[in-house]
Amino acid sequence: VMSAVDDVARMLALVPWLLERPGATVQETAAVFGVAESKVREDLYHLDFCGLPGLGGGDLFDVSIVADRIVVSMADELREPLRLTPVEALRLVLIAEAVRDAVAGDLPELDGAIAKLRAAADVPRGVSVELDDTGARWLVPIRRAIESDRTVTFAYRGRADDAPQSRTVDPWGLTVAEGFWYVQGHDHGAGARRTFRLDRVADLEVGDQPRTHPTGVVEAPRYRPSEGDVEVVLRVEARAAWLAEAIDVAEASQEGPVLVLRFSTDALSWVSSLVLTAGAGVRVEQPTELRELVVAEAQAALSRYAGSAGTESSS
């Protein structure tokens, strides 16, 4: 099945290719890009509504088919290599430097590549940006623990924890998702595999003892229900549909205009904060405990607001 990503990638390559080959036939183009001739014609139809920023009448590409030969005009800017803006160039340099720090010198070639990037983008030496903590500082010791089959011990504050808890883990894999690093392994305390987000880790130490559990398969980070979890059902309106992305739901079903989300959690306080953020766009169907928690937190917030408003009016 052809995805939208495939379609966009092909169309991005299609215009420069056609500019280099004026008069290419639909059949030839379809063969080169490995698609049906009807797909090429569909792409060209869409490209006729595309162009450069501004998108006025003089900014759109001019695409036509004459006697089965394709003619593209009003797109000469795409003949030249794309140039990065200063912001794009700085972002590219910072990403490369973040990768270098994450691999801990295992790719020394990166230093030379980064120097060339800085020179080409004219990024002054010493320019840097403070990024949010993604847990990358723990990558080196965890990688060493994985390589040497050692346990790691650290303090971890999960979504349901009032205070950090000590965890001992046999790590077997590292992965990154949505800008955050995760370590996966066997949690000795839970007696099962667990995934930990590294920006919630503190005081990590590599142990002297060898691992006692076999390695597992590294998977995309996701919440794994445990025996003590609570079943939650939320009825969500379209304006709060983002909740389906914010929560790792087990089941989502459409009932008329309402989306019903079902999932398990060990962190009702975290779910409560999401419900309060969604406001009138979501209703808690179960459990009663969550409904009571949402009401209590909403009333507490209103009380704090009323108190601060009273203080301001009397001053």
What does this protein structure show overall?
With 315 residues, this protein is an alpha+beta fold. 37% of the residues lie in helices and 25% in strands. It contains 9 helices and 11 strands. The chain has helices at residues 4-20, 26-33, 37-47, 86-103, 109-121, 139-147, 243-246, 268-278, 288-314; strands spanning 62-66, 69-73, 150-156, 165-177, 180-187, 192-197, 201-210, 230-236, 251-255, 258-265, 282-286. The strands form 3 sheets. A 5-stranded antiparallel beta sheet has the order 6-5-4-3-7. α2 (26-33) packs across α3 and α4 packs antiparallel against α5. It is extended, with a radius of gyration of 27 Å. The model has no long low-confidence stretch (mean pLDDT 82).
